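chain below, 182 aa
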Amino acid sequence: MTQATNEAGREGLAGQASAKVEDAASVAQEKVTELREEGSVRLRDQFDQRSTATGQQVRSLAEALRRSGNDLTIEGNGNAAQLTGQAAERIERVGRYLEEKTGDDLMRDIETFARRRPWLLAGLGALAGMAAARFVKASSEQRYDGDRATSEQWRTRPGAYRQSELPPHSDGFADDPYAGTR
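prediction:
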């Protein structure tokens, strides 16, 4: 009888432990959902703030362009002033759009654009990739030139040979006991 009682007690404890684990899992899942929603809200707010700030900057650019167009009109360059005015108007529309739309609206518009014109989006991505590659290549050439200039300084220090005076199998330093053995 005691063995049956012990087994029943173990099953009861196992059931209680299982129920507690299920409750803890449920609470953890609710917390994860809550944190995900909170993060999503923060991200949307951040996107709204950034798009509004970008819209304001774009509109100030349009205003500066419009002033330049007015200066061109005063100088007598009517065609350039007209083109500048048209560009300023279009840029201002973009700025107004960015200021007025919410983050969700912007994302929806971007998704709609991408669905309607996938090849254009792929082309824009390829252009952005090529521009980034050119930027990286240009910056690496500048770093390489800087490194080469620095290494030339080390080679021309006292006690070192100039590049044209190097003996065979030497790294350029006269007092190197291992010169020629490498």
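The chain has two domains: 2-116, 122-182. The chain is about 80% helix and 0% strand.
thats it, cya
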